[in-house]
Specification:
- With about 55 residues, this protein is mainly alpha-helical.
- The protein has one domain (about 1-55).
- The chain contains 2 helices and no strands.
- The termini are far apart.
Length: about 55
């Protein structure tokens, strides 16, 4: 019981530490950038297909 409480306290301290919070934030931003990039790529592909249909 005591060991479990100490482990929980230690993991909470790590989670609340600045480097951990920054890395979590950085990972979230990287995920958002990837998703945005994928959406832009999909939109560009769709636009290219529509332009080809107009030209042909």
């Amino acid at each position: 019981m005591i060991k479990s409480n100490l482990q929980q306290g230690a993991s909470a301290t790590v989670r609340n530490s600045l480097p951990f919070r920054f890395s979590a934030w950085a990972e979230l931003r990287a995920t958002e950038r990837r998703a945005t990039g994928q959406k832009l790529q999909a939109a560009q592909t769709l636009l290219e297909k529509e332009m080809l249909q107009i030209l042909l």
